[in-house]
From TrEMBL:
Domain Helicase C-terminal: 226-367
Protein name in the entry: DNA or RNA helicase of superfamily II
PANTHER family for this protein: ATP-DEPENDENT HELICASE IRC3-RELATED, TYPE I RESTRICTION ENZYME ECOKI R PROTEIN
PROSITE patterns attached to this UniProt entry: HELICASE_ATP_BIND_1 (PS51192), HELICASE_CTER (PS51194)
Lineage, broadest ranks: Bacteria, Pseudomonadati, Thermodesulfobacteriota, Desulfobacteria, Desulfobacterales
Gene3D superfamilies: P-loop containing nucleotide triphosphate hydrolases
Pfam families cross-referenced by the UniProt entry: Helicase_C, ResIII
GO cellular component, one term: cytosol
Keywords tagged on the record: ATP-binding, Helicase, Hydrolase, Nucleotide-binding
């Protein structure tokens, strides 16, 4: 039996409340290391009385086994089975863990199921011909809950749109919350003299063309420079994970590591002994593991303390997943170094705050009206030469060609956005109700008075979708009255239940 952490309990309660009061299909956003399998098991346990038949769907056998094992520990039930050709099991029981590849054309076996939990739900496409959409098109009455660390489809949010399968967020577990609670380790990115120059690389399906990436960057001189830098500066790191462009590139990187005296292993889709290799890496037999995409989901090796990104991507999901492999905590592990040779952090942003807003602006205009200050990561007007937020002097782009498709352009973008400009003492707190100029709906306002300055939190209980979900999440963290207010007036009536807040962290916008 598991004892839930407070954020896991909050996620379960908020999702149950959503299913009770709303009609849509919500998402739980939970970073790597938040314990999705525990949340899934607890949802099954508490919802099993109302939903006698629950199916948990994902795309990989490793994730199915992880979730199945967690559930059997939590429930001690004999009515739990697996339906997956890859695991040689075809059980249809009241609680069934299934592979979408195995069940998408077996809808008749699951028509009596009323609740579906979808792990790694960012892989559910909008395409009507996809396996997920074909499956659910034939299921008559059901509720669906998704779980993911990356609620993005390429560079857009994957919920709330007219055509999206998922409608809202029932709860979001913030990466920085887990870091503060020491449930995840810190990720630290250092500048590198080696950066891939992706200019001229075309995109296929929304991401960089793999063949063109390989042709440009899978070269001995590039690989040697990168591996030499890692060996010279980070040989003391115990467990390295390197992500490459394709199988040939991964093989060449692996050979280069061996040549430099690093105990390295190779994992990719065409090898039969991946499971044993991964176990050997976890046991410490190898210092480095080189991979393509096999290890981006469903891989758990907490000892990883160095991530090397040798694969350029324009996908926020892949970007977050690759770096997230190093966020697990482990005894003796202080942090995880992230070496981004592909420029993904500069291009896509910190993994806990990717550049969605910038991207959405860019769709409407040829050039976004703002840019990122490389020192403080703040949004500033594009024409400015000095950041008004931190005072950093911004030079025009200067790129020195090093040859071999590399640039001298050290990354100064941080892998995690941890900006708190100040911690302020709260002198007084006031509560009021204001109307939103945009929607005309009421908002519950919490006004923090800090000496001569005032800061306002707007909780949108009268709104729908994510705005209300976020308000409920904040309410759960600050109020002793755990049931969420029905609206802003109700929140004002319950204001006495808000805990005493003595300090607030503020950041510049």
């Amino acid at each position: 039996m598991f004892t839930l952490y407070d954020y896991q309990e909050a996620a379960v309660q908020a999702t149950m409340e959503y299913l009770k009061t709303e009609k849509g299909n919500p998402i739980i956003i939970a970073p790597t290391g938040a314990g999705k399998s525990v949340i899934i098991s607890e949802l099954i346990k508490r919802l099993n009385l109302e939903h006698k038949n629950i199916c948990i769907i994902t795309h990989r056998e490793t994730i199915i086994k992880q979730n199945y094992n967690a559930c059997t520990k939590q429930l001690n039930s004999v009515y739990v089975g697996i339906y997956s050709a890859g695991l040689n099991s075809r059980d249809v029981l009241p609680i069934t863990f299934a592979s979408i590849n195995s069940i998408y054309n077996k809808q008749h076996l699951f028509k009596h199921f009323t609740l579906f939990l979808i792990d790694e739900c960012h892989l559910v496409p909008d395409n009507a011909k996809s396996m997920y959409q074909q499956f659910f098109a034939q299921i008559p009455n059901y509720k669906a809950v998704g779980l993911t660390a990356t609620p993005f489809r390429h560079k857009d949010l994957m919920f709330g749109g007219h055509d999206n399968f998922f409608t809202d967020v029932s709860y979001e577990i913030d990466f920085m919350t887990l870091l503060e609670k020491q449930k995840l380790c810190n990720l630290v990115s250092y500048s590198s003299r080696q950066q891939f120059d992706t200019k001229g690389i075309k995109k296929t399906g929304g991401d960089y063309n793999t063949k063109q990436l390989s042709h440009k960057f899978d070269r001995n001189e590039i690989t040697e420079k990168i591996i030499n830098e890692i060996v010279a500066n980070y040989l003391h790191r115990k467990a390295w994970l390197l992500f490459c462009i394709d199988i040939n590139h991964a093989t060449n990187v692996h050979k280069c590591l061996l040549k430099k005296g690093v105990k390295s292993c190779l994992v990719h889709s065409k090898l039969n002994d991946n499971a044993k290799t991964i176990d050997d890496f976890k046991s410490g037999l190898y210092q480095a593991m080189v991979s393509v995409a096999v290890l981006t989901t469903g891989f758990d090796a907490p000892q990883v303390d160095l991530i090397g990104i040798l694969r350029a991507t324009d996908s926020i999901t892949l970007h977050v997943q690759m770096i997230g492999r190093g966020a697990r905590i482990c005894e003796g592990k202080k942090d995880c170094i992230v070496l981004d040779y592909a420029g993904n952090i500069d291009r896509l942003g910190p993994i806990n705050m990717p550049y969605l807003e910038m991207i959405q602006v860019a769709k409407k205009n040829k050039e976004p009206p703002t840019k990122i200050c490389i020192n403080c990561l703040g949004y500033i007007k594009r024409h400015l030469k000095k950041c008004p937020l931190c005072g950093f002097k911004i030079k025009d782009k200067q790129e020195e060609d090093l040859g071999h498709n590399l640039q001298l352009k050290p990354s100064k973008c941080k892998v995690l956005d941890q900006r708190l400009d100040d911690m302020l003492t709260v002198d007084n707190i006031y509560y009021s109700i204001k109307k939103s100029k945009k929607t005309g709906l009421e908002m519950f306002c919490i006004v923090y008075s800090c000496y001569t300055r005032k800061f306002i939190d707007f909780l949108c209980f009268d709104h729908e979708g994510y705005a209300r979900t976020k308000a409920i999440q904040i309410w759960h963290s600050i109020s002793e009255h755990k049931k969420a207010p029905l609206n802003s007036k109700h929140a004002l009536a319950l204001a006495k239940s808000i805990k005493k807040i003595t300090h607030i962290g503020v950041r510049k916008k």
